[in-house]
């Protein structure tokens, strides 16, 4: 497998993993809210309540979900074939309709991130293509409709004043799992 195809495979795995987290969370919540579409209730011994259950979406952004995004060449076929956008919107609608909290974990890169010493092939390519690029954490210049912005069809759900957008994550891989301070 070439380095480029490994990057494509990593992106595909990342995208499917993010959607999988959201879907699994939503389907678990379906036990308490049948509108979410689960065929059966939660596993034995598990209770699902709105007070401690939420739907989490990772990277619902243009760069991975739009035909114009920087990563479409790597993930577009999978997004289309699996009806990822349609399924995500179905989960957004259902969660909002029954009152589950919704959390978004965005992926952003700022100009200060460009000097990293530990990025892998995926992050290197993302820096080169300006995937998820933002001008700064408190600066929205150039953000609307950029690759880092939300897919238009998701904006009504995310920008409703109720959805919680958490601090962005930066990388995907083992280099961030067990950081050790060396003096």
Structure in a nutshell:
By secondary structure, this protein is mainly α. 38% of the residues lie in helices and 7% in strands.
Secondary-structure topology with pairs:
Elements: H1 3-29, E1 54-58, H2 62-65, H3 72-81, H4 84-98, E2 101-105, H5 121-129, H6 155-158, E3 164-165
Parallel strand pairs: 1-2, 2-3
Describe the 3D structure:
With 183 residues, the protein is mainly alpha-helical. The protein has a single domain, classed as Isochorismatase-like (Rossmann fold). The protein is 38% helix and 7% strand. It is built from 6 helices and 3 strands, in the order αβαααβααβ. The chain has helices at residues 3-29, 62-65, 72-81, 84-98, 121-129, 155-158, and strands at 54-58, 101-105, 164-165. It has a 3-stranded parallel beta sheet. The protein starts with a helix and ends in an 18-residue tail after the last strand. Mean pLDDT is 76; it is low at 14-39 and 177-183.
């Amino acid at each position: 497998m070439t380095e480029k195809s490994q990057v494509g495979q990593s992106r595909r795995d990342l995208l499917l993993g993010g959607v999988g987290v959201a879907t699994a969370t939503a389907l678990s919540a379906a036990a308490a809210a049948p509108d979410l579409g689960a065929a059966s209730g939660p596993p034995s011994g598990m209770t699902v309540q709105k007070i401690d259950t939420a739907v989490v979406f990772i990277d619902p952004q243009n760069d991975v979900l739009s035909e114009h995004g920087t990563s479409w060449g790597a993930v577009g076929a999978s997004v289309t074939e699996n009806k990822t956008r349609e399924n995500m919107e179905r989960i957004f609608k259902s969660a909002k309709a029954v009152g589950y909290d919704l959390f978004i974990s965005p992926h952003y890169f700022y100009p200060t991130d460009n000097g990293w010493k530990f990025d892998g092939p995926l992050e290197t390519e993302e820096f080169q293509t300006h995937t998820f690029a933002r001008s700064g954490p408190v600066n929205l210049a150039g953000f609307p409709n950029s690759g880092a912005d939300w897919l238009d069809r998701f904006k009504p759900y995310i920008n409703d004043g109720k959805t919680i957008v958490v601090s962005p994550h930066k990388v995907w891989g083992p280099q961030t799992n067990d950081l050790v301070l060396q003096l």
